[in-house]
Design brief:
3% of the residues lie in helices and 48% in strands. The chain is globular and about 50 Å long. By secondary structure, it is an all-beta fold. The chain is built from one helix and 23 strands.
């Protein structure tokens, strides 16, 4: 299961922390474990300022970090680390001859193979979504390949234990707002399905996570227009968060499930999902009133979409909008 780091405008340091423990605590209603650093801060990027940093952790404890730089066009890099936080070789250029990369996502399997997804803009073509698969030692298994022809918005990627992966993204809809889309790939990087619809309409942000059986869950947001209690003539947009499960062939297993909403007006909820091996899942989202007040809330579900723990605020200090599972 991949996880994200808050973007940075400086060279991104890495502090080895119990990454797997964070997700495990979220999925267990009784867990009281607190994540703690188990190593010193280490620099992942070697020279240029780094942005859009993301990390994915394998079940063996090894992890891989991706980031972008200000270079053009070769600006997307990855670097592998062992379970003790030691770098395994130098940073690896990742986006090949494609246009300058932006806002990457990364996921890994049990063996440490990993997949990257990013957007790139090209003169005369516009913005497209690209993906590329790598072996456990960082050797590219595929060339960068674009996925969609419509203007992509947010995106995510999730990988199961065997190396199958799903790319999910939001793209402009000819009917209303955005379409939430997905596409499944096998461990060799070959498409298993054509692009399929996850939900419509959607707005803004999307996330995905696999269980051990190859099924996956998605989280996304839908915006509704409403009036404020103090001024009926003033219209605001309120983000509602939903989840939807799919089988290993990309077929929906349920209708979309309402999770919660953000109290913020003109505000994005940034939903993130995580799943355990059995398919029980957690959804996290920003539920605050404004950009200055954004606590993180979570809600737990079993694999049949029954709520096992109702909404709970996990960021009472409301100090940061960046978060991950």
């Amino acid at each position: 299961m991949g996880a994200g780091l808050s973007p940075s405008r400086v060279v991104t340091p890495v502090r080895l922390t119990a990454f797997a423990t964070v997700a495990a605590c979220c999925l267990s209603a009784t867990a009281q474990m607190e994540p703690r650093p188990v190593g010193p801060i280490r620099r992942a990027s070697e020279s240029e300022p780094a942005h859009d940093a993301r990390v994915a952790v394998s079940n063996r404890g090894t992890f891989v970090i991706t980031w972008t730089t200000d270079a053009d066009p070769q600006n997307l890099f990855v670097r592998r680390f062992d379970r003790a936080g030691n770098p395994i070789g130098p940073a690896i250029p990742a986006n090949g001859s494609t246009p300058k990369a932006d806002d990457p996502r990364i996921a890994t399997d049990d063996l440490g193979r990993f997949v990257l997804v990013w957007s790139g803009w090209e003169q005369g073509v516009g913005t497209r979504l690209f993906e590329r698969l790598f072996d456990f030692d960082g050797t590219p298994l595929t060339q960068p390949a674009w996925i969609n022809t419509e203007l992509p918005d947010d995106r995510d990627v999730a990988m199961d234990w065997a190396g199958n992966y799903v790319v999910v993204w939001e793209q402009a809809s000819p009917v209303c707002a955005f379409d939430a889309m997905g596409q499944l790939f096998d461990p060799r990087g070959a498409p298993k399905t054509p692009p399929f619809l996850i939900a419509n309409p959607t707005h803004g942000y999307i996330s995905a996570a696999f269980d051990r059986g190859g099924d996956f869950v998605t989280g996304f947001e839908v915006h509704f227009v409403g009036s404020s209690s103090s001024s009926a003539s003033t219209q605001y947009i309120y983000p509602y968060v939903y989840a939807r499960r799919f089988d290993s062939a990309g077929n929906p297993k349920n209708d979309q499930v309402f999770v919660g909403y953000s109290y913020g007006r003109w505000f994005y909820a940034h939903p993130k999902v995580g799943s355990d091996a059995a398919g029980n899942y957690v959804v996290a989202w920003r539920s605050g009133w404004s950009h200055l007040d954004h606590p993180i809330s979570t809600k737990l579900f079993d694999r049949f979409d029954n709520v096992t723990r109702d909404e709970r605020e996990v960021d009472p200090e409301r100090g940061n909008s960046g978060f991950s599972l």
